[in-house]
Amino acid sequence: MHLSRSILPVGLVALTLVSCGPSTVAQCNEFADVINQAQVFKDEFETEIDSFTQQAQGAESLGDIQTAATQYISAVDNVVGSIDGMVTSLNELELADEQLSQYRNGYADIISGSAKELNVAGEAMQLVADAQSEADLSNVLEEFQGKANTAFTNLQTLSQDESTLVNDINTYCGAEVPVGDDAGPAEAPAAE
Q1: How far, in Å, CA of 154 to CA of 158, rounded?
Q2: What are phi and psi for residue 2, nearest 5 degrees?
């Protein structure tokens, strides 16, 4: 199975604030600060997934496969913990602006959904890690593929939803969204 680097949807809200009122500007910046935290754990997760992919591709024995699977499960557990912390931070944001509050709730729902799907992918990989023999591994591969593929498809949908929402947030907050960049969030420097 090929695992994409986009298994974790993450958006950076890049704000160049020009059109919002002072309180909205401050709220947009607070919101951006929380969302931008995701870049750190996204980079760490991608590094771990790259390492997993290399290990999995070079696996020559059941032990090699189990080691790679365990590494993947650990990476998922770490990023899900980071996502849970980010959801808590989002929920603690006091946003008086009703539209920003709706965006926050939507964003929290999307990343919570991502954590759920990552857990499903981790559970699928646990089937591989728990295989005691090559016969056991053969017996769980179909279930693993089904769960992993469903989780990955759902993660892709959530990533698209996140990208759309981040673009909406950037537009609302007066951020510059690169022309023709419908597939991803703006990546301009965050407002100071």
Answers
A1: 6
A2: -95, 125
Question: 30 exposed, middle or buried (CB, 10 Å; 0-12, 13-18, 19+)?
Answer: middle
Q: What percent of the chain has pLDDT over 90?
A: 52
User: Could you tell me the pTM of the whole model?
Assistant: 0.77
Any idea where the domains of the chain sit in the sequence?
Answer: 20-172
Q: What is the assigned CATH class of domain 20-172? A: mainly alpha
Distances (CA, A) of 181 to 30, 37, 148, 184: 24, 22, 29, 6
Using alpha carbons, list the distances in angstroms from residue 27 to 23, 102, 120, 146, 164.
Answer: 6, 13, 34, 42, 20
For the chain, percent of residues with pLDDT exceeding 70? 79
Other beta carbons within 10 Å of 162:
23
Max mean pLDDT range (28-37, 44-53, 122-131, 181-190): 122-131
What does the DSSP 8-state code read for residue 7? G
Surface-to-core class of residue 83, CB atoms within 10 Å of its CB (0-12 exposed, 13-18 middle, 19+ buried): buried
